[in-house]
TrEMBL record:
InterPro entries: HTH_CRP, RmlC-like_jellyroll, WH_DNA-bd_sf. Gene3D superfamilies: Jelly Rolls. This is HTH crp-type domain-containing protein. One of its GO terms (biological process) is regulation of DNA-templated transcription. GO terms for molecular function: DNA binding. It holds the Pfam family HTH_Crp_2. PROSITE patterns: HTH_CRP_2. Residues 92-166 form the HTH crp-type domain. It comes from the Bacteria.
Amino acid sequence: MTAGWAAFAKTLSNGSRLIVDFALPREIAVIEFAGEAGETVTALSDVTAIELAGPVHACFSRYPQSICEAILMAQASRYSRLAEHLAGASRRGAVERTAHLLLELACRVHRSATSYPDRFACPLTQAELGDALGLSAVHVSRVLKALRETGLASFRNGVVELHDHAGLIETAGFDRSYIS
């Protein structure tokens, strides 16, 4: 993706959805469609992407080794993120998992696994955050209010501000090694 944000989601039989990952600018987003049972990909902002047609496993016979290696690294990185998201949804409280996701997005947007920006543009709605965190939009609103009131982070008008990096990292139990 050269610009924009997209969400990989699984729609459940009751019509609800779970956002399992996000594709961000300057990241390789491996999208393979597996019919109705697979993930859907939804643009969350204006998206510009470069398409490499065909199945991923065919890249080795069609593209230079450097492109194939980048695709494999992107898939490994996505697997690591999915493992963290699963751990968050099953073992972290609402505040911790929200703080964790905000820190992950900050690292990915900033394109750094060693530092955090003080602020970054984030086109997500509270409903989309809820779908990614396994929380209702109302619960997300309460959690964001708690993060704001404790001086850790705020999310307003499409901008996330990280006010206290160390406190947010401690709250989330965040170890950014899975991003690098």
